[in-house]
């Protein structure tokens, strides 16, 4: 990434603002010594702004950057001394959004230990599989998951919230030096269609990844940022990394509650909100507070934006919405700003600076503009492979996302869905997202999902699952006629099933396998 662009972006976002020379020197030394890991980012923030609030919880409790670093260092020393944790081990982190989760991830990084971020929505069987496949030495978990972890092997050290506090309180003094190996952050894939896989995230090697994001999403130094997206997810973790780099004050709630979120945004004067799209839908269902939160940025990722959501949210909260399309494997691919979303509410935007994006056919050749093909991405933060040893297909330095999409004449990317989600009905290719977006525009519909199910005549047929707003009704044939009016006949769902709600994982993605249970 070219230096003038980096300097200009850092200046615009306030990162090159002069400060006390001794603190600036200490900040730069922290990055030189500890690198760009989460531990390095926390150290540089504590060196520059030690007394600034780092984390605020739902009860109003605050930890400064220096206090957060001190707790993480004490935990690291205690894990090493009391549990024998050492570089190369793996620690599982089964926690919701609170300072204990952050302390554990940073402690692992300080020791050169891999931190496996465990999805809080896993079943007991899935958790056991993850513990075995990831070879966990220790599992740090919230108290609410005490029953979930009962079936894990006895040799796996389990650290609940009380034990976590005791480790920090009882830590012996000592010095922590940069480990010989960098600890990796291992993020589990969403597992919406099968068992989650562990993906090794690389450690940034400079300002490049940060600059790519904040050039397009106008976050600034010392903003107050609420991270509602789960931090165990790539998007929530990215929000944490960016917040540390900006020395932001981070607002965390263990669980997402729309009314509580709106209240916190107003009470703390939040400048930015990191969320997943379904959270925005829930916020719109709440009566807007008066005055409304003076947000400058609402950044979403993790799943596709339903067709009408972007304009509806911006009509309510202003043109502050930014949609980042990416994945656990490629980090980011493109970003859509408010103007893009006003023009095309379902767009994924354009690649940020330093990112290559191409639409290729199955033979690796570029497809004509407007045609659907495979989305491949190249940037500084491509994942390092799955912990199983598997990887994804690459082509000329670009990683296959597994998604299909197209680029229109204005250069905007549109994601049609996963390649393995495409439905072939009677020889015709149908993308569920197109039908879902259309159904979501019905005023009676709260949320919609479309899947393919086996059909003896056509191979597959479309099934639509609709959750309606309270008190609303719809006739299945009226739904089919509505789709028939706007789309081709092969896009009409033959099955229309009404449900109370769509099954979603903790990051807001619809779990398709749960819907298929309707068909045995």
Automatic annotation (TrEMBL):
Residues 43-386 form the AMP-dependent synthetase/ligase domain. It holds the Pfam family AMP-binding_C. Coiled coil: none annotated. Keywords: Ligase. GO terms for molecular function: medium-chain fatty acid-CoA ligase activity. One of its GO terms (biological process) is fatty acid metabolic process. The keyword Phosphoprotein does not apply. Residues 434-509 form the AMP-binding enzyme C-terminal domain. InterPro entries: AMP-bd_C, AMP-bd_C_sf, AMP-binding_CS, AMP-dep_synth/lig_dom, ANL_N_sf. The keyword Flavoprotein does not apply. Belongs to the ATP-dependent AMP-binding enzyme family. This is Acyl-CoA synthetase. It comes from Micromonospora acroterricola.
């Amino acid at each position: 990434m070219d230096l003038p662009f980096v300097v200009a972006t850092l200046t615009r976002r306030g990162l090159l603002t002069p400060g006390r020379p001794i603190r600036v020197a200490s900040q730069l030394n922290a990055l030189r010594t500890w690198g760009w890991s989460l531990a390095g980012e926390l150290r540089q923030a504590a060196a520059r702004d030690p007394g600034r609030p780092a984390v605020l919880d739902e009860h109003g409790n605050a930890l400064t950057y220096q206090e957060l670093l001190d707790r993480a260092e004490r935990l690291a020393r205690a894990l090493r001394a009391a549990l024998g944790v050492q570089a190369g081990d793996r620690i599982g982190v089964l926690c919701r959004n609170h300072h204990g989760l952050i302390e554990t991830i940073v402690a692992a990084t300080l020791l050169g230990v891999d931190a496996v971020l465990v999805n809080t929505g896993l079943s007991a069987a899935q958790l056991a599989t993850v513990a075995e496949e990831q070879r966990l030495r220790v599992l740090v978990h919230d108290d609410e998951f005490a029953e979930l972890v009962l079936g894990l092997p006895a040799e796996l050290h389990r650290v609940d919230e009380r034990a976590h506090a005791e480790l920090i309180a009882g830590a012996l003094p000592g010095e922590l030096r940069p480990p010989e190996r960098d600890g990796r952050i291992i993020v589990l894939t969403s597992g919406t269609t099968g068992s989650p896989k562990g993906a090794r995230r690389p450690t940034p090697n400079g300002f490049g990844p940060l600059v790519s994001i904040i050039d397009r999403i106008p976050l600034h130094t010392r903003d107050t940022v609420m991270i509602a997206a789960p931090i165990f997810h790539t998007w929530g973790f990215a929000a944490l990394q960016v917040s540390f780099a900006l020395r932001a004050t981070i607002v965390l709630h263990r669980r997402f509650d729309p009314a509580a979120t709106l209240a916190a945004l107003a009470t703390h004067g939040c400048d930015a909100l990191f969320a997943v799209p379904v959270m925005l839908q829930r916020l719109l269902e709440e009566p807007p507070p008066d005055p409304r939160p003076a947000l400058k940025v609402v950044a979403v990722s993790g799943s596709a934006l339903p067709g009408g959501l972007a304009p509806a949210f911006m009509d309510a909260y202003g043109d502050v919405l930014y949609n980042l399309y990416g994945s656990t494997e490629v980090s980011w691919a493109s970003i859509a700003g408010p103007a893009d979303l006003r023009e095309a509410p379902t767009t994924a935007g354009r690649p940020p600076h330093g990112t290559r994006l191409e639409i290729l056919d199955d033979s690796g050749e570029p497809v004509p503009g407007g045609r659907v093909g495979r989305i491949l991405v190249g940037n500084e933060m491509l994942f390092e492979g799955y912990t199983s040893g598997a990887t994804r297909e690459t082509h000329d330095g670009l990683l296959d996302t597994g998604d299909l999409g197209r680029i229109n004449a204005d250069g905007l990317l549109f994601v049609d869905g996963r390649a393995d989600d495409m439905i072939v009905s009677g020889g015709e290719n149908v993308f569920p997202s197109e039908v879902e977006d259309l159904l979501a525009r019905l005023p009676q519909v709260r949320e919609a999902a479309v899947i393919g199910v086996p059909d003896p005549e056509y191979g597959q047929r479309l099934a639509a699952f609709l959750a309606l707003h309270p008190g609303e009704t719809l006739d299945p044939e009226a739904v089919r006629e509505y789709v028939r009016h706007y789309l081709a006949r092969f896009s009409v769902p033959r099955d229309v099933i009404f449900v109370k709600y769509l099954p979603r994982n903790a990051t807001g993605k619809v779990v398709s396998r749960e819907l298929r249970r309707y068909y045995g």
